[in-house]
Amino acid sequence: MECTLISLLGESEGVITEALEYCKKKFEKIENIVLYTRDVREKVKILRKVLKMKELKQRIGDVTSKFVRIPVSDITSQKELMTFRKTVEKVIKGIDRNKTVILNISGGRKIMVIVMLDVVRKIGLKGLWINIISRMKREEIAELGDIVKEKIENNIKLEKEEIDNYFFSKGNYIVLEFSL
């Protein structure tokens, strides 16, 4: 079975890698679509590098990833909201209808999640939405993120423990799943 995972990248790359690990347990092949705004461009650079790492591929498999930049920094106006919606509609309309669609609503703002769910409902796609909840403290995630970012930017190999801790919340996360 195949799936398309659509995620909003917010404060932590971990919600993407944890969602991929979840999908790996249920699906043989995963297409990963990451939506992001200008505010998280640095996190996209890190995520692109990390998804190519052998240590991560052992956990999530060989995933095909596509990154789609939403041409706004944030949603603070009706115009930005409509720009976001048009981008989401274009991405979702391009999805293979034979694959299970999984919306990862763990990242991004609430209004972004609402728009994504509304677009999927109007288009009539079937699948699941998931929410990843890390049981780590936000401060600890942020501290680990700073260490990981510095190492990746300086081409220093990440230790297995750093990968497990930051990208998989030390294994201390849960996934809530609901049908679309």
Task: Give a structural overview.
The chain contains seven helices and six strands. Strand 4 (100-104), helix 5 and strand 5 (127-134) form a beta-alpha-beta unit. The model has no long low-confidence stretch (mean pLDDT 92). The protein has helices at residues 14-26, 41-50, 54-60, 78-93, 110-123, 138-153, 160-167, and strands spanning 2-8, 29-36, 64-69, 100-104, 127-134, 173-179. The chain is α/β, with parallel strands linked by helices.
Q: Count of helices?
A: 7
Radius of gyration: 16 Å
SS elements, strand count: 6
Average residue pLDDT: 92
The run of helices and strands is EHEHHEHEHEHHE
Major sheet description: 6 strands, mixed
Instruction: Indicate the overall shape.
Output: globular
The portion of residues assigned to helices is 40-55%
Distance between the termini: 18 Å
Low-confidence stretches: none
Strand order of the largest sheet: 3-2-1-4-5-6
What is the SS-derived class?
A: alpha/beta
- Which percent range describes the beta-strand content? 15-25%
Summary, kept brief:
This protein is α/β, with parallel strands linked by helices and 180 residues long. The chain is built from seven helices and six strands; from the N terminus they run βαβααβαβαβααβ. The protein starts with a strand and ends with a strand.
Short descriptors:
single chain, 180 residues, alpha/beta, 6 strands, 47% helix, 23% strand, globular
